[in-house]
Amino acid sequence: MTQTQTGDGTTAQGLLLCLLSTLSVAAALLIAPILPAIAAAFPDDPMAQTKSILALAVPALVVAITAPIAGWITDKAGRKGVLLLSLVLYLACGLAPFFLNNLDHIILSRVGVGLAESGFMTASTTLLGDYFKGARRENWLVVQTGTASVAAVVLTAIGGVLGEYGWRVPFMVYGLGLLFIPLVMLLIREPKHEAAEKTRFPLGKVFPLYVIGLFAATLFFLVPIQTPFLLTERGLGSPQVIGLTSAIGGIAVPVGGLIFKLTARLRLSQHLLLAFVMIAGGLFLFVGDGSYPVTCAGIVITGLGCGITLPAVLTAIMARLDFAQRGAGTGGWQTAFFLGNFISPVLVLGLTAQLNGLGTAMHALGAAAGAAAVLSLIAALLPRPAAKTV
After folding, report:
1. By C-alpha distance, which of 56, 112, 123 is closest to 333?
2. What value, to the nearest 5°, has the Cα angle with vertex 165 and ends 162 and 170?
3. Residue 112: burial class (beta carbons within 10 Å; 0-12, 13-18, 19+)
């Protein structure tokens, strides 16, 4: 069955498509708390620690590489089919480590998780663009970002608790994919293609947005990944303190999304100016004077800025894409976002080594966000034609 592509999506469809983003968060954060336990479970493998970290990181890298292909397939073969096949693959590969006894095989299963994530994240975000238009689309893209952020807090805690019962147990949470398959079959309808002339993909219009998205995603993952290390340096590395502090940051992101909704009349450059000023100030406070309250203030302000940036960029991308281009365009966004996920910790490691400290590295990245704010200010002062809404 098909659903006319007129922006008449239902609340149930929107909620389901947003909830699918929790599966992408689970791909990394469920196993983050059990990495030491995974490495310890394979004492005969001299590369166990490196391989366990690779098992954490590889899905994001796979998404970054394959999302454009997933987008092209989504446009050619249909959204719903890609969504269902991806969920089946996610279920099978996500559960596999519970039964596997070789780290190389576990890494291979994680490649499968990345392929699945590439498919369902591209298809679900594309469907949000298909089902909703204008302000409703902006609202649902904000909900999607907020849902993922809240899920990040919850799943990190779940992964830590379940890890107490053995490193394999958290992988059972991937069985949640089984719940989504019948819901997708019941609620999701393949959108009807619009009758329109074929047009060339507007790479010139969306590529600058992909670059902004890559930079924003790199900043987005700085605080969640680096908070445990910074707190540990300061003698505040207990799991309870790290968990509470991470939760504070996770809650700030959807609040930033709400700020984006309340300031929807602003142009993209104005949203980016506001967001990058907040991120730059937040990162400097994150390092701060070493006190816990100032660190928390930095985490909150950075999270608010990131919560504004991501839906602002994604909404702008959607507004520049026709129906037949939306899957490929969304695939490009997923590549930018997940490449930022992969680059962020690597960049911090390099800067920390070059600048002799994590605090100095974060200051450098805060300065980069400040430079982005200046560029956004220049863009905001220039007259720009309004982008068409599709």
Report:
1. 123
2. 35
3. middle
Q: Which residues pair with 3 in a beta bridge?
A: 191
Element (H, E) at 168: none
List of domains in the chain: 1-192 (1.20.1250.20), 202-382 (1.20.1250.20)
Query: What is the secondary structure of 274-301 as a DSSP string?
Result: HHHHHHHHHHHHHHTTS-HHHHHHHHHH
At residue 195, the pLDDT reads: 54
Question: What is the reported pLDDT for 386?
Answer: 53
Sequence-distant (6+) residues with CB within 8 A of 133 are 6, 7, 389, 390
Q: Judge whether 330 and 125 are in contact, CB under 8 Å.
A: yes
Residue pLDDT, tens place only, 223-280: 887 887 788 888 886 766 777 787 788 888 889 988 998 898 899 999 999 999 999 9
- Give CA 198 to chain center in angstroms: 31
Output the pTM of the full model: 0.80
pLDDT of amino acid 40: 87
Distance CA 289, CA 328 (A): 45
| In contact, 376 and 272? CB cutoff 8 Å | yes
* Backbone torsions φ then ψ of 46, nearest 5 degrees: -65, -20
Neighbours of 4 (CB within 10 A): 10
DSSP string, 15-82: HHHHHTHHHHHHHHHTTGGGHHHHHHT-TT-TTHHHHHHHHHHHHHHHHHHHHHHHHHHHHHH-HHHH
The answer to whether 219 touches 343, Cβ cutoff 8 Å, is no
The 3-class secondary structure across 110-130, one letter per residue, is HHHHHHHHHHHHHHHHHHHHH
Ranges in the chain, pLDDT < 50: 4, 387-390
Beta strand 2-3 with 190-191 is parallel
